[in-house]
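Before relying on records like the one below, remember that each one covers exactly one chain. Contacts with other chains, cofactors or solvent are not represented anywhere in the record.
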Amino acid sequence: QLVESGGGLVQPGGSLRLSCTSSTFSLDSYHIGWFRQAPGRERETVARVSTTNGRTIYLDSVRDRFTISRDSARNTVYLQMDSLKPEDTALYYCAASTSIYFTSFMYRGLGTQVTVSS
């Protein structure tokens, strides 16, 4: 019930904007997080946005480069990714949770591939 888009191939230093949306429920009702997983590596929680106060939380390695935001009118959460690095290459997916710690997912998408390479 969550659908991601916006991934692709980009050169180091480039930008991408990922989108996460649903046609079946309101994203405003949940904390929304972006996650990534690369082959052979553990899942990382890249960014989260709270449903209650709009608080945002970032992985240290992406802070100051990535921005998570909500567009309630479009029922979409974005992940703006700037100054991309090869180590950002991964499958990115979004999830909805009733906990800001994302101890469990109510919904998650299948993901969109981001590849950073020259």
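The two ends are 34 Å apart (CA to CA).
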